[in-house]
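Re: that chain you flagged

S.,

Sorry for the slow reply, it's been a week of failed gels. I finally had a moment to sit down with the sequence you sent. For the record, here it is as I used it:
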Amino acid sequence: MTKFYYQDSKAPSPTAVREGAATIIKCGAEYLFEKRADSDLWSLVGGGLKQNETLQDCALREIKEETGMVILLSELRLIETIDDPTRIVDYGDGNIVQLKTSLYYTELTEKPEVTISDESDALVWVTKGELKSIQIAATHNHLVKKHILENESE
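Prediction finished late last night. Pasting the structure tokens below so you have them in one place:
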């Protein structure tokens, strides 16, 4: 079972740094979240950077792989790069990584069909109010709070 840590003194020491991208996907008053297959937690759509891939390409690939949606590069906006050494993921197989994440934002005009990948147990559209009732991975929870719950412009 994968475990997520953020500003947690009990977090294990990472063995590597993993760079990647995550995207806040909004449609109307709802945001898309995935329930991870490797834990019982929810997160933004995203994942690790592959060799010879830009962070933007990583975000677009992860959106397509995890949801089936095709988003254009022109529809992505970089919000923030998070380089906080307290964002740790323990995959339970000996891989313990510190995350460095480029966070993107895209807003859709209509809700598309989504397809669940092997990495997810579910995909759901939730309102800001409903976000308080789902358990979000610690490595994404602070991003959701900052960029969705506390930010009226997103």
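What I noticed first: The longest helix spans residues 55-67.

Talk soon,
D.
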